[in-house]
Amino acid sequence: MMKNFTFHNPTKLIFGKGCLSELRVQIPNEARILITYGGGSVVRNGILQQVKDYLEGYTVFEFGGIESNPDCATLDKAIAYGRSCGCTYLVAVGGGSVLDGTKLIAAGIKTTDASAWEMVQQKRYTSALPYGTVLTVPATGSEMNRGSVISNRATGEKFSFYSEFPVFSLLDPTFTYTLSEHQVACGIADIFVHTIEQYLTYPGQSGVMDRLAEGLLLNILDFAPLRLESPQDYDVACEYMLSATIGLNGFLSMGVDEDWSTHAIGHELTALAGTTHGASLVMILPALLEVMRPEKEQKVLQMGKRVFGLQHPTFRDVVEKVKDFIHSLGLSTSIKEEGISPEVVLEIDRRFSKRGKSYGERGIVTPDKISQILRLSSEL
Questions:
Q1: 206-215, pLDDT tens digit by residue?
Q2: pTM to 2 decimals?
């Protein structure tokens, strides 16, 4: 049965070739703007300069160097800089990490009684500055949701933080043309698992949500090989970019239970082993499906019929199809295949055991189940 829900997503999505020209239309004339970006790719490919050109006439400041899996120490520096400049508006230029970091910066500038990491740990902020985004790496859906994931490299931790939605997001598919094959593969893996986390629970909740998720999964299977083969095909780039947004902007989760245990475990892999987020997720997913088979088998078989086109699927058939897709992206399907050290796995197990928290739909993924998942992924 579908649960009661309230849906609200206020982000204005501006999509298509040349949409950057809309940038200055979206921001008040009197704004003091802080542009945030990452390690330099937007400098090299000229996108940052395009943003600055369109903001000519505004008072503009810059903060670069926001790393993949943004570190709270870096974000503390950005917050202090934004305050010192009297910034009133932020524009994030980059992929999910830059957008995630900017969400916390926007909240941190207005929250004077806590550091970045304290805000993450306490799950709170006072208020936030408005911000817009210029997306360059489709994957996280951060351009149209209020969630972020923040790292603390000093402690080897990575946790979620929720603040405000972007006021607007500009999505030009041509900005994806220069991404590396590995970036694209990890991005597609992220989109795939985002959809799985909202879909692969138990049947009978909502035909509408099931069909929306299944349609997106089918589209991912369609465009993934085309994107890897033809990185500058505009139509394929559109499918890639918009699929990432739809995968995590709330459209697939209305009134249904969600999982997110693959993400919980994957975040720990990224924090401790430095693996790219999307790659971490697909290392965990096959083992998680195996361990959680009693609870998820019906929905897995439904996916086998509706998504993978299997007439009479077995559970094993569908898991193998999932693994085949992951391998087609050039990514690993287990911790063992990736070569993650046993020490990292033991530390992840210890952390979940210490927290004593259950994850997944209806709290079915207990610390004991996570131990089984980690052990199986280390053996596959």
A1: 999 999 999 9
A2: 0.96
